Amino acid sequence: MNPRNTPKTLAVAGVFIAAALSVQTVFAAETTSSPVVDAASNGFSLQFEQNISATPEQVYQALTQDIGQWWLAAHTWYGSSAQMTLAAKAGGCFCEIAPDGRETEHLRVVKVEPNQLIRLSGGLGPLQGEGLSGVMDWQILSTTEQQVTFRVSYRVGGYSPNDLSAWAAPVANVLQQQMRAMQTFVEAN
Asked: What is the Cα gyration radius of the chain?
């Protein structure tokens, strides 16, 4: 058996894809264009934007200090959003730390421009086990004093025996679901 294809890894990947596909219809109605910029057997690129009624500082705080309050538990390894943290500094960890000693680095912070940009590197979710490289940007673009456009870009590539284009739409949908949760959290607080 391929060590990446253990029953637990396959189960987590299946849950990830099922959750992504379950929200696909909701987001198709809310977005005007596909977040999938391109997709090929060796990688894919995603980008989408959403308007948030908040200041850049409020969005940045939600992304960094409050991530455990809005990140959806369905998209964690250990089932609790409260275990999610993001250290907003170069080399910082976007991590999930369970009280029983289990830990996962979801992504690594590689660039921070407070209230403007957080750049992360790595394979999110089941992509981690594929051994892929990825770069994700969370960009906060101020449009008015109380309104921002939040842009998410994710570029993933590398060798995998699997066709990576199949991951593009599910990953895009999960990211949209997460960022919609962040938007709801920010606008409610």
From this structure: 16
Instruction: Note whether 17 and 170 are within 8 A (CB).
Output: yes
| Average pLDDT score over residue span 100-109 | 96
User: Pairing state of beta strands 43-52 and 84-86?
Assistant: unpaired
Angle between helices 56-64 and 165-188 (to 10 degrees): 120
DSSP state of 16: H
One-letter amino acid at 165 equals: S
Residue by residue, DSSP assigns 81-106 as GGGEEE--STT-EEEEE-TTS-EEEE
SS3 38: strand
Buried b (16+ CB within 10 A) or exposed e, 38-76: ebeeebbbbbbbbebebbbebbbbbbbebbeebbeebbb
68 vs 48: CA distance, rounded Å: 22
Tally of residues, the chain: 189
How far is Cα 164 from Cα 166, in angstroms, rounded to an integer?
5
pLDDT given at position 131: 85
Q: What is d(CA 60, CA 113) in angstroms, rounded to the nearest whole number?
A: 10
SS3 8: helix
Residue showing tokens 């790595």: 122
For the entire predicted model, the pTM comes to: 0.82
The pLDDT of 61-69, averaged and rounded, is 97
